[in-house]
Write a structure and sequence with these properties.
single chain, mainly alpha, globular, membrane, disulfide bond, transport, OATP, Solute carrier organic anion transporter family member
């Protein structure tokens, strides 16, 4: 066989995903800080739950969009679809995977426009912010900047100072035992969740003979909405009972333990392997 010339298209996909990640990352940490600083104490859990619920509904619509694009041939718009003799059920079928990137890019750009009109600071009653460290820190920083005369820029030392400040901030954050424990817990949860979303559609294709389009549709419709509903209900429960940090920790531990016990049932669900001559059975 002659070796075909390699394509460098993966570089554009890599750069595109990198830019997408850079643009999406600030929404979660800065958005939560924005809500925490300028919302009432009892309303913060509900607002944060709404933020995470929308974040879970996004992948659901992504799976549905992927299901729609998978039904279209990869060269849609460039070839005569009437001349295509294979169907989406054929193993040689390749869906229009690139179309989802274009639709998502335009949607993300339009959704980002309202963020440009958000004010830097919102008015809020002072009594609601007495215990907010971040809010007081912002006020102190603002007062310090007004009191101190503007310093002359030092372009040569700016980069070194920036890295030094970043290292100091990172060290303080990671030395917080509660945050570090929460970070490890989140890593474990997302690692299992990503594996579930990655391999379950392929499992449905192989074991149940479903098309890629239908597998994505079923995953997006059955797996993600319950998670979003659970996040929203958790925020409502925290608001109703006004849980403290200890109460919220006990609540999260109980729910995580129940989820772990229920997830163990997956070990009892499965299908027999396909009969493949030379692999699962002998040639005879």
């Amino acid at each position: 066989c002659e070796k075909e010339p390699s394509s460098y298209m993966w570089i554009y996909i890599l750069l595109g995903n990198m830019l997408r990640g850079i643009g999406e990352t600030p929404i979660t940490p800065l958005g939560i800080s924005y809500l925490d600083d300028f919302a009432k104490e009892e309303d913060v859990p509900v607002y944060v739950a709404c933020l995470h619920t929308i974040a879970m509904l996004g992948p659901m619509f992504g799976f549905l969009l992927g299901s729609l694009c998978a039904k279209l041939y990869v060269d849609v718009g460039f070839v005569d679809l009437g001349s295509i003799t294979i169907t989406p059920q054929d193993s040689r079928w390749v869906g229009a995977w690139w179309l989802g990137f274009l639709i998502s890019a335009v949607t993300s750009f339009l959704a980002a426009i309202p963020f440009c009109f958000l004010p830097k600071s919102l008015k809020k009653p002072e009594e609601a912010n007495n215990d907010k460290t971040s809010y007081g820190l912002l006020e102190n920083m603002g007062a310090t900047r007004k009191a101190l005369p503007p310093a002359k820029p030092k372009p040569r030392k700016w980069l070194r100072k920036g890295w030094k400040d970043f290292y100091t901030s990172l060290k303080k954050v990671l030395s917080n035992r509660m945050y570090f424990t929460f970070l490890c817990c989140s890593l474990l949860q997302f690692s299992s969740f990503i594996g579930f979303l990655t391999y379950k559609p392929k499992y449905m294709e192989q074991q149940y003979g479903q098309s890629t389009s239908k597998s994505n549709f079923l995953i997006g419709l059955t797996s993600l909405p319950p998670v979003g509903i659970g996040i929203f209900l958790g925020g409502l429960i925290m608001k109703k009972y006004k849980m403290s940090i200890i109460g919220a920790t006990k609540f999260a531990f109980t729910m995580s333990f129940l989820a772990y016990v229920i997830t163990l049932l997956h070990f009892f669900v499965g299908c027999e392997n396909h009969v493949v001559a030379g692999m699962t059975v002998s040639y005879e």
